[in-house]
């Protein structure tokens, strides 16, 4: 589906990065119908990027890779509670380059040979924000180190971690997502007590729209908790080795 006028392939690879996207839900409070929660915020951790598989013997001059571009929860949570629609703007050489995904998982797959920038526009539910959020991702098909042979089994994965920060959210939105695993509520309104989280919510915390995604084995783990556990295990192993010697 990709034409011969795709941009030239580059060999460099962008690193995964962590940024914070500040998105204020300042939409005139729906003309006063939906009260805002002052001095509070909701954080939605997201990951966006692409995974690309070399087609091997099936590769041709204009069809060398199959790739998927996506926006997912940082731990594969269901982002549909916040995001209503994702629009992916592909290179103009593709048929129907503007692709709209109306439900999670927010992803699309294609095949081609060229690398190019993909614009991603996230549209939120009406109680979140009327303003869309624009992201940009440079599609990568080749690893940064191209000295070794290409492999059909190990894909190229390029991901970025971002945080959508919704300051002073509406009461309607807060009530709808306060116990949802896709969101983080680090600061509550003064005098406001969070209702207890049911045990089933804890059990479902790792369940989400990309939980059963066949590509999930390749996703990057951005969990700070997991990183701390790995660090603690490494330190424990060092202490054991020192005591043995």
From TrEMBL:
Main location per the UniProt record: nucleus
Entries under CDD domains matching the protein: YEATS_TFIID14_like
Domain YEATS: start-end pairs: 36-180
Keywords for the protein's UniProt record, in alphabetical order: Nucleus, Transcription, Transcription regulation
Manganese listed as a keyword: no
Region (Disordered): 1-32
Protein name (database record): YEATS domain-containing protein
Naturally occurring in which organism (per UniProt): Penstemon davidsonii
């Amino acid at each position: 589906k990709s034409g011969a006028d795709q941009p030239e392939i580059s060999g460099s690879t962008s690193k995964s990065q962590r940024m914070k996207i500040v998105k204020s839900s300042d939409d005139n409070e729906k003309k006063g119908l939906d009260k805002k929660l002052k001095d509070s915020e909701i954080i939605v951790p997201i990951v966006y990027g692409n995974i690309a598989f070399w087609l091997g013997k099936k590769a041709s001059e204009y069809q060398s890779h199959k790739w998927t571009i996506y926006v997912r929860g940082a731990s594969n949570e269901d982002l549909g509670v916040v995001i209503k629609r994702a629009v992916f703007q592909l290179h103009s050489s593709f048929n129907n380059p503007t692709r709209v995904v109306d439900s999670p998982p927010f992803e699309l797959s294609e095949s081609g040979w060229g690398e190019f920038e993909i614009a991603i526009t996230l549209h939120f539910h009406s109680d979140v924000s009327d303003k869309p959020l624009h992201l940009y991702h440079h599609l990568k098909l080749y690893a940064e180190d191209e000295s070794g042979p290409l492999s059909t089994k190990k894909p190229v994965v390029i991901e970025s971690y971002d945080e959508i920060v919704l300051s002073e959210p509406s009461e309607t939105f807060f009530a709808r997502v306060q116990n949802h695993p896709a969101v983080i509520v680090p600061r509550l309104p003064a005098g406001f007590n969070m209702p207890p989280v049911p045990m089933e919510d804890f059990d479902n915390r790792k369940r989400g729209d990309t939980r059963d995604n066949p590509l999930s084995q390749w996703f990057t783990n951005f969990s700070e908790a997991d990183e701390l556990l790995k660090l603690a295990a490494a330190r424990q192993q060092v202490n054991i080795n020192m005591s043995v010697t």
